[in-house]
Description:
The protein has 489 residues and is mainly alpha-helical. Helices cover 49% and strands 4% of the residues. The chain has a 4-stranded mixed beta sheet with strand order 3-6-5-4. Strands 1-2 form a two-stranded antiparallel ribbon.
Amino acid sequence: MSSVYPTRKSPPPEMATYTPPLTPPSNPVKSLKADPEPIDLHIPDNYVQHTLKTQKELPPISWNNWWRELQYLTVAILTITPSLAIYGMFTTKFRWQTALFSVFYYYVTGLGITAGYHRLWAHRSYNASRPLQYFLALAGSGAVEGSIKWWSRGHRAHHRYTDTDLDPYSAQKGFWWSHIGWMLVKPRRKPGVADVSDLSKNEIVRWQHRWYVWLILGMGFGLPTVVPGLFWGDWRGGFFFAGALRLTFVHHSTFCVNSLAHWLGESPFDDKHTPRDHVITAFATIGEGYHNFHHQFPMDYRNAIKWYQYDPTKWFIVACYKLGLASHLKTFPDNEVRKGQLTMQLKRLRQTQEKLTWAPDSNDLPVITWESFQEQSMKRPLILVAGFIHDVATFVDEHPGGRHLIVKYIGKDATTAFFGGVYDHSNAAHNLLSMHRVGILQHGYRQGLDDKAVPPAQRLRIARYSELGSSTAVSDAETLVGDKEDKDV
């Protein structure tokens, strides 16, 4: 997929990725003079460590002070709203028209957060026309989660300081803290610095911030009450169901991005931090559940990169692009996305690899002469294959071809016979034989045996970067072949 969806007015594809998502001012020179200075322009290089050491935390919450630490406005919103919904469920008839409208309005206001607050303004992952920006600003107001500027400031801090004490809703502090606790009590420390000067220049963001209280009343409760009331006479149902109950679901749907998306699922792109991918979270959050991908590639307008993954926010943005309402849809280079996937796949394979028992390292095996090999073969069944000496005492009677085929090669070189002369042994047989290695024949390596000296299971063995390039020269000193039992001890 191209890194940007081009439009007729878009720059060339190689430049489109870097196009700012917000419409540039008509007078750039005049605007630059009036631009506010980014708040993080002059922060020190060691800002995080310095802040954690010097910024004083509020005292821990206890039974003696919890009532002083509450953020009462947020507590009121997050308790009164569900209380109204529960009261309405027991006192108001649930009409099917209101039910359908409630679901519809849930998606409208939810998209105001996911497609608007989150992907457009917080991450600038695409450009939106003025009509679309106004629609998303109004829809986001109906979710009653703060203004665009306030919400985006906190979310940018969350991405910059993920899982640290400067993360306003760090998952390291527990599921319920990241879900709702961080909003109910005063933060123990100020969230890390995050610049929103670009949003301060956006007139639609400023407009919504200025009139936010009236917008949440109108879009949060006014509109969902009026529509059912005027069209099918269900004023109470509109208020309690399309208003309060729908708002409760929108709240906790969004909250799940901070909690469930950091707790449930897998980390297919990176496991450095807590974000995870899971389809259940995607269904609960209007497509924001592929959170591991999102934290790795936050500028991408998608959360789900596969066609069958549930991401209605992505579909909505694409539909807006098709209608000419959105442009410059940013995607992270596919090559880099696949690198992240491969890294995690290799890491999981490495974990599996470390649980297996492998053939002894050639550097740990004793080196003996041909004469010594033959002499010791008189006392124990030793055979030579690909320059390695093998003690086959425990396998003689288990050999599928009969013990006689092994006995005849005791004290001899069975390389040709093993690799097709008598029977072209399977990879499994080669792997098993390597586990019986007890020594290396001095000057016994033959040209053309490179692929045969390494067991098939180890040819693609995953090595850490610290293991690469390390090798130890084999000594020419004569030693005795040790018994496997002695080596294990």
